[in-house]
Each structure stands twice: as structure tokens, then as C-alpha cells.
């Protein structure tokens, strides 16, 4: 990229480029503290980097932190930016396109995997799904043979002697490790995987394990089944592995052990080993970005791998956890959101609470009270005192921001404005937005606090907000606080805990929560926040079993997504950008408002796409066919208006006495329809719905109610299909 960029410079002066390699060998811009140390503006008024002018930043966006602290560095310098990435994003908080002033979803140029395969630069996958019963369905006691039932009854499941009647699929390989499951996978891999050395040795293989304990259990079972390899053939390579880099170096050598790398996240990205011919997905993946990064570990060319003149032509992907089916259906994936820093989330949550309290307090009463009283420092007795304390805390945080810091400097006007205490007396909605966008997350010089206390602060803030907004998530947050109080009670031998024991025990009772108020929650937070660090992070005791699992036959899976960056992908991105720019159009508004389309509306949508130069007729025809209608295609790009989605579910809610979890489940449907416009019934049995009810909607609703929900979803779908 640097050499190419030199051709566009007006003179022949060399380009000064500051980069750094991380632990996995990826090139990136120098780390944050080093950056700050290199900044020098003292000479001739120009921004300089070390001893040379900073002309160009080349970003390999493998580092997720490009959207957080590094963004401030790019904003500070006025250099040109060249971005190179395998995983462009267009999410609100992580938008690669906006970083480079591009139209969302339309990169300057793209080179897809399928193009690279056609051009002979990469090799394609052969994807094979292998069903495992326990991985997909969990383990039910009633389904086990009698011998396995005896083993189940003899297990020490917990300290209280409780014996479950089933173990969910999510627990398998998380804390329940079954010998037969792992043995069947290893046998399948060793017999079906691509082999080298004349077919006598399994080729280089990466096994993506669920966690450290899972990787170690796989290694243990491999060594038990293949003792003649003396524990060298398959090795655990994770961030916890001693001398991990030495093992990676050996794994990179064609004929050197280990030949199987058992990895937990460490080898998902950034590893370039051409000899890898087998990838084993032994864990669930729901991030599309991560899935394609993991798949990329096998795509490298490798001449003469099998014998002279016999090159690597493809690689195997063995999936035992239904990842291939998930991604082959083009289901919108969960990207594993990159959360904002904890300090920024706390700042914004406190701003939200101030906004909610301001709504609840009468203007005249609020102003009169503030004129009479300074912010209290003790436990608050009223919502107004809570508001005053929060405002005082945020004011101290802003006042402690160093205006000389180059991250703070571009926001100097806002920081100086809110460094005055009177600015916090009355905060308009516009002021709250300004504080959230301009000030939240900026570095402050207040003494740092413990992470555990800050996380507890955020939990209670979210609890207060849920209470003020009457949100169904209140019950879930309340139960988390009760659980933490229960764990604190076990630390009664510690004097500071014993001093708060009355409150700790009260918080665990339903009576304390019956008439809970914002000041009560605030007082509880202040008294318990510094004790939370005393709670030991408890882990579920691992259970080791040897139940007989069932493995189904292989199923080849086509991966339509193996064409990211193609012209059709660009067409979808352009179509989305164009349609969202014309949301006031009658036909698009009908789709967003869940109104029935006519044939004339469909014709108008087709004309609009064609006239705006979004794509060729073949692209539009393909979009309509794959989405089962042009209306459904357009709806999937523009989404459903949130109010329309709520109205669609209103009939289901009316007249029913639903619990908090049931209402939260309905809200999840509203969220999905708002974002994606339509919904398949099968999604009700996928995350995030199964995060709330692992066995599907039948666990929350009656059969008739489930049918009613499905009818609503189908009605929303039908409204996007022209009569």
C-alpha cells in the first residue's frame, strides 16, 4: 500500500509510515502510548510524527480497537488514510466506511474470496456438516440407555445433591464433557480428514474448541485413543499455553509436530499456514465476521503439499455444531458487538438517569429545591437528591479532563462548557445529546476505581432506568442484584461485609423490592459497591461423562456467502443506501408501515431501483427470486417502522395477563421486525429468543398463543407481497 501510494505524491519525498506488528504478526499503527509520545508540534507549526512528517496511515482493520482509541489518533492527524480489511463493517458504532468517508456498504474496491479462488490465488472449502445429537439437542435422562442412566444418577451434579433431568446443548463442552462425543469427532477427523505424507498422516488441522477446558479435554482424549503419538501430535495452543509461540512455529513447519492445533480464539485470525487442510468447528459461532476469518485459515495455496506436482486444491471444513447450516441460509448474524468502554457506558447511563429523573420531577419543585440546597453527600432521601449527586459526580469527571490531552482538545468547547457546575443545574435534551456525543468517554484524571465496583454501578443504573421506564428487563436485573447479595452473604466473616449484613439479607427478599424506589437503589449501590470485589468468580464445576452419543451422516453444505465483495453484494449495499434515502416514497412507506402493497407499488419499486442506477435488471430479478418477492427484498433492506411493528403485535398483547419474560419475548420480535422487516418462524428457536427461553416459545406460551404469534409474523410477511 505504501509503494502504491507513492505514485500519487506530488514529489519524490519518501513517505514516513509508522506501523507496528502485534503478537500475531499483523501490521497496525503504533500502539496508543507510543503514539502520544511521538507527537511533536513545536516545529514550524506542522503536526509531526517523531522526526518526520506523518503522511500516511495504513490500517489493517484486524484490530477491533480501530473504532475506539485509535479513531482519536486518526482524527488528530490530517494525513491520508488507506484502509485494508477483510471484514468491512457498517454498524453504528463500528463503521469502516464512515471512517474513510465512503457510502455504507460500497467500498472503493473489493476483491471477493470467490474471485480470488477463480484467479488462482486461494483455494475453496469443501464444507461438511456432521450432526451430533448431544451438540444439537442436549442430553435427556429419559433418552439414555439404562447403563448410562446409572452413570447419570451416580454423578455429583452439585453440592446440594440435586440431579437434573436434562442438560441443554449449550452446556455440552462448556462444563459437561462427554468422552464418547469427543471420541466420535476425533475418529471422524482422523479417518475423513485430508492426509499427507502419502496418505499416512493427517494434514495440518485446526480444531476450534469452545473453551480452555474443552481444548484440554480433546487433547486428553486424543492421547488416550492414539498413545503411540506420545502426546506430540495434537497440542493445545491458546493464550494460556506456555511457549505458545514455539508451538505455533512448529505447527507452521510442514513435517514437524504438532499436526493438530487445539485452539480457543488464538488461531481464529492472523495465522497464515499454507499447509492447513482441515478446519474443525467444534463450537458454535454466530459472528459472520469471525466465521469468515476462521474459514480463511484454510484458503492459502500450498504447492507440492501431497507430493511433487500435487498441490493443495481445496480444504475440508468439518462442522459438528450447525454453523454451516446457519451461514449457508444467509441468516443475519450476530456480530458480537464491540461494547463501548465501561467508563463511557457509565457516563451515558448516568446521563440517561438524569434525563428520566428530570421528566419525573416537576419543574418548579426541582428549581426551588436546587436553589436552596447544595448536592448532598450522604445517602439520598429523594429522587431529586439522587439527581443532584449524579450531576455532581459527572461534573467532577468533566472538570478533571485535561484540555491539553490531544483526545480532549478537539472537544474543548464542550468540555469547558460543562466544567462549570451551573451547566448541570438544568440539562435540556439537546445538552444530554451533546454530552453523550462529545464528552462521554473522554479521558479524565480522576483516580481510577475498581472494575467490579464500576460494573455494579452500571448494573444498578440500568435497574433504576428499567424501573423508571417500566421495562420488562427490570426483573432480570433485580435477580442479578439478589444473586450478588447472596454471594456477599457467604462472606460474612469479613468485617466490612458483616457491617452491611442487614441490607444484604433484605435485598434478597421479595418484600424489599415490592415498593423499591430510585433513592433506595442508590443507597444500596453506595453501601455495597466496594464489597463486590470480595466475591470470588465462581465457575460451574466441570462434569465428565461417558454417555453414548449419536453421530449422523455427512451432509455437504454450499456456502453462498463465499462470495463477499462480488458485484451482487455491491448491488445489495447500493440498493439499501438508495432505498433508505427515499423512505418517504409511497411504496417504501407502505412497506415500512406494514401496509399491503399493490402490483403498481411493485412496478414502482422496480422502476426506482433501475432509474437510480442501483443495479442491472438481472440483479433486481435475482433479488426478487432469492427473497421470494421484490417487496420482501426491499422490506429486508429498509426494515419495519418500530411503531408499526408494535401495532402488529398489539392485537396479540390485548386482553392477556402476560409475565415479564413473555413481554420481553414479544419485544424481541418487535426488535427483529424493526431491523429486518420480516421474520421466519424458525428464528423463534434461535438466539436471542433462546437466550430467554432455551426450549422455544412453547416454554412461555400456550399452544394457542404460539399459533397466534406465528399468525402475526406471517401477516407481516404477507403485507410485503403484492396482492
Automatic annotation (TrEMBL):
Instruction: Kindly give the CDD domains that the UniProt entry links to this protein.
Output: SF2_C_EcoAI-like
Q: What are the BP-aspect GO terms?
A: DNA modification
Q: Which GO terms describe its molecular function?
A: ATP binding; DNA binding; endonuclease activity; hydrolase activity
Q: What is this protein called?
A: Restriction endonuclease subunit R
From which lineage does this chain's organism come?
Bacteria, Pseudomonadati, Pseudomonadota, Gammaproteobacteria, Lysobacterales
Q: Which organism is it from?
A: Metallibacterium scheffleri
Q: Where is the Helicase C-terminal domain?
A: 181-342
User: Which GO CC annotations does the UniProt entry carry?
Assistant: cytosol
Q: Which UniProt keywords apply?
A: Endonuclease, Hydrolase, Nuclease
Family annotation (InterPro entries): EcoEI_R_C_dom, Helicase/UvrB_N, Helicase_ATP-bd, Helicase_C-like, Helicase_Restrict-Modif_Enz, P-loop_NTPase
The superkingdom listed in its UniProt entry is Bacteria
Q: Where is each Helicase ATP-binding domain found?
A: 1-106
Amino acid at each position: 500500500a505504501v509503494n502504491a501510494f507513492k505514485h500519487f505524491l506530488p514529489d519524490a519525498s519518501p513517505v514516513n509510515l509508522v506501523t507496528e506488528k502485534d503478537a500475531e504478526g499483523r501490521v497496525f499503527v503504533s500502539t496508543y502510548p507510543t503514539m502520544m509520545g511521538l507527537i511533536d508540534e513545536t516545529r514550524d507549526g506542522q503536526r509531526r510524527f517523531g522526526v518526520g512528517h506523518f503522511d500516511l496511515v495504513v490500517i489493517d482493520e484486524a484490530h477491533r480497537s480501530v473504532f475506539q482509541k485509535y479513531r482519536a489518533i486518526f482524527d488528530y492527524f490530517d494525513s491520508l488514510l488507506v484502509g485494508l480489511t477483510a471484514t468491512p463493517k457498517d454498524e453504528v458504532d463500528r463503521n469502516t466506511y464512515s471512517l474513510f468517508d465512503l457510502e455504507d456498504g460500497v467500498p472503493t474496491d473489493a476483491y471477493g474470496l470467490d474471485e480470488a479462488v477463480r484467479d488462482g490465488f486461494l483455494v475453496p472449502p469443501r464444507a461438511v456438516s456432521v450432526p451430533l445429537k448431544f451438540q444439537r439437542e442436549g442430553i435427556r435422562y429419559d433418552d439414555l440407555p439404562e447403563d448410562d442412566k446409572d452413570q447419570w444418577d451416580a454423578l455429583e451434579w452439585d453440592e446440594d445433591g440435586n440431579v437434573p433431568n436434562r442438560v441443554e446443548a449449550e452446556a455440552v463442552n462448556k462444563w459437561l464433557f462427554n468422552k464418547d462425543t469427543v471420541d466420535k469427532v476425533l475418529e471422524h477427523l482422523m479417518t475423513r480428514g485430508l492426509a499427507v505424507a502419502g496418505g499416512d498422516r493427517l494434514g495440518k488441522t485446526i480444531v476450534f474448541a469452545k473453551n480452555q477446558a474443552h481444548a484440554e479435554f480433546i487433547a486428553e482424549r486424543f492421547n488416550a485413543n492414539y498413545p503411540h503419538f506420545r502426546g506430540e501430535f495434537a497440542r493445545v495452543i491458546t493464550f494460556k499455553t506456555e511457549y505458545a509461540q514455539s508451538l505455533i512455529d512448529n505447527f507452521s513447519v510442514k513435517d514437524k509436530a504438532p499436526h493438530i492445533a487445539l485452539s480457543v480464539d488464538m488461531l481464529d485470525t492472523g495465522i497464515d499456514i499454507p499447509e492447513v487442510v482441515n478446519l474443525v468447528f467444534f463450537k458454535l459461532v454466530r459472528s459472520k465476521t469471525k466465521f469468515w476469518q476462521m474459514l480463511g485459515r484454510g484458503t492459502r495455496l500450498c504447492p507440492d503439499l501431497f507430493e511433487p506436482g500435487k498441490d493443495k486444491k481445496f480444504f475440508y471444513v468439518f462442522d459438528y455444531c450447525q454453523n454451516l447450516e446457519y451461514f449457508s441460509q444467509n441468516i443475519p448474524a450476530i456480530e458480537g458487538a464491540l461494547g463501548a468502554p465501561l467508563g463511557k457506558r457509565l457516563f451515558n447511563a448516568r446521563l440517561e438517569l438524569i434525563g428520566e429523573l428530570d421528566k419525573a420531577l416537576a419543574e418548579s419543585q426541582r428549581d426551588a429545591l436546587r436553589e436552596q440546597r447544595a448536592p448532598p453527600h450522604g445517602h439520598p432521601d429523594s429522587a431529586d437528591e439522587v439527581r443532584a449527586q449524579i450531576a455532581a459526580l459527572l461534573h467532577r469527571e468533566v472538570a478533571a479532563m485535561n484540555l491539553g490531552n490531544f483526545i480532549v482538545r478537539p472537544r474543548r468547547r464542550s468540555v469547558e462548557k460543562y466544567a462549570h457546575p451551573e451547566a448541570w443545574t438544568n440539562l435540556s435534551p439537546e445538552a444530554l445529546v451533546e454530552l453523550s456525543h462529545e464528552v462521554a468517554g473522554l479521558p479524565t484524571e480522576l483516580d481510577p476505581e475498581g472494575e467490579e465496583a464500576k460494573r455494579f454501578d452500571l448494573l444498578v443504573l440500568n435497574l433504576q432506568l428499567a424501573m423508571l421506564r417500566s421495562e420488562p428487563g427490570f426483573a432480570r436485573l433485580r435477580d442479578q442484584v439478589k444473586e450478588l447479595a447472596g454471594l456477599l452473604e457467604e462472606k460474612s466473616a469479613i468485617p466490612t461485609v458483616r457491617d452491611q449484613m442487614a441490607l444484604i439479607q433484605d435485598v434478597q427478599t421479595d418484600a424489599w423490592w415490592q415498593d423499591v424506589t430510585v433513592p433506595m437503589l442508590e443507597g444500596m449501590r453506595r453501601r455495597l459497591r466496594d464489597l463486590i470485589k470480595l466475591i470470588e468468580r465462581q465457575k460451574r464445576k466441570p462434569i465428565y461423562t461417558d454417555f453414548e452419543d449419536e453421530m449422523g451422516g455427512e451432509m455437504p453444505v454450499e456456502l453462498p456467502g463465499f462470495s463477499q465483495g462480488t458485484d451482487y453484494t455491491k448491488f445489495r449495499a447500493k440498493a439499501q443506501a438508495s432505498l433508505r434515502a427515499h423512505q418517504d416514497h409511497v411504496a417504501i412507506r407502505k412497506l415500512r408501515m406494514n401496509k399491503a402493497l399493490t402490483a403498481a407499488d411493485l412496478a414502482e419499486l422496480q422502476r426506482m431501483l433501475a432509474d437510480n442506477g442501483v443495479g442491472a435488471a438481472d440483479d433486481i430479478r435475482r433479488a426478487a427470486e432469492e427473497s421470494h418477492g421484490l417487496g420482501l427484498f426491499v422490506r429486508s433492506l429498509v426494515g419495519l417502522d418500530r411503531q408499526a411493528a408494535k401495532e402488529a403485535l398489539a392485537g396479540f398483547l390485548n386482553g392477556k395477563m402476560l409475565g415479564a419474560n413473555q413481554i420481553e419475548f414479544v419485544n424481541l420480535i418487535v426488535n427483529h421486525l424493526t431491523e429486518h422487516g420480516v421474520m421466519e418462524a424458525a428464528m423463534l428457536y434461535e438466539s436471542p429468543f433462546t437466550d430467554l427461553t432455551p426450549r422455544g416459545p412453547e416454554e412461555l406460551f400456550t399452544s394457542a398463543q404460539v399459533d397466534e404469534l406465528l399468525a402475526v409474523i406471517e401477516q407481516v410477511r404477507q403485507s410485503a407481497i403484492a396482492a
